[in-house]
Amino acid sequence: MAFPKTRLRRLRRTEGLRRMVRETRLSPADLIQPLFVCPGRGVERPVSSMPGVAQLSVDRALEAAKEAYRVGVPAVLLFGIPEHKDSIGSDSWLDDGVVQNAVRAIKDAVPELTVITDVCLCEYTDHGHCGVLTREGDVDNDATLKLLARQALSHARAGADMVAPSDMMDGRVGAIRAELDEAGLSHVAIMAYAAKFASAFYGPFREAAESAPKFGDRRSYQMDPANGDEALREVALDLEEGADIVMVKPALAYLDLIYRVRHTFNCPVAAYNVSGEYAMLRAAGLNGWLDEERAVMEVLTAIKRAGANLIITYFATQVARRLVDSRR
Ligand code: PBG
Question: Domains in the chain, please, with CATH?
């Protein structure tokens, strides 16, 4: 009987050895913490489908941003829940809208923290679609571009370091880039939700952001989950239009695309570990069905291993705190 000469188990024997040959190491610097900002003061309204996540008024969002920064998370991503909704989402470009106020408060208190803003109309429209509608009720691509650019400009004027369009209209990265450049804001970066799929995993987010469409769905603008090659075309176009970072969203069911984007384009890639992915792990953890801490580390490490340079996750601050404590 021949004994195997190659023994891969040799380097798995102790944590010390495993640590030495570990190929992927998650760091707080990889993570981005999303925050939901709502009107008011001292408001903290829990999101029932995302235990541990709440809508926060500007003062509370500032506290959350400070805590993220304290544990080494380099950036927050802001979503706004406005006072009023209308058919064109006009609250989204108010100088003193919730997001604009939050940007100013955070950049004032923690200038080193990178502030990214989500640019989309769905939280601001009464019909809940990501763009304005034609008479027939379709989402009007080109009419939407102007409004997205206007929203992005108001975020940038408030001091956002980066804007992140999530609407999936064609040409929005170019329209936003042109608007920012014309206003002398060429230093503001764009993180494009480049390959964003029409996913069931956004369900809990729509409760958090109060942005569920009132009729129909988002399949006429978000991508078909069956398409991989098309995702690469989306990414190529966004880069041509001036995107600085491209995103794949959701993350877990699309690890192949994170990998392909990473190896096809030489640019920073972000992955969005979305609300439904958070909810699955949290629910199972709270029920005692799996070890949440280990499962979260495994999932985030896998997203990084697949090729993501940045991971947007509702677990960011929690995971960063643990990484700092354990020097992993
Ligand atoms: C807005 C937007 C959505 C998400 C980010 N920006 C929801 C959607 O497209 O319906 C989803 C984020 C998440 O599920 O965590 N367009």
Answer: 27-326 (3.20.20.70)
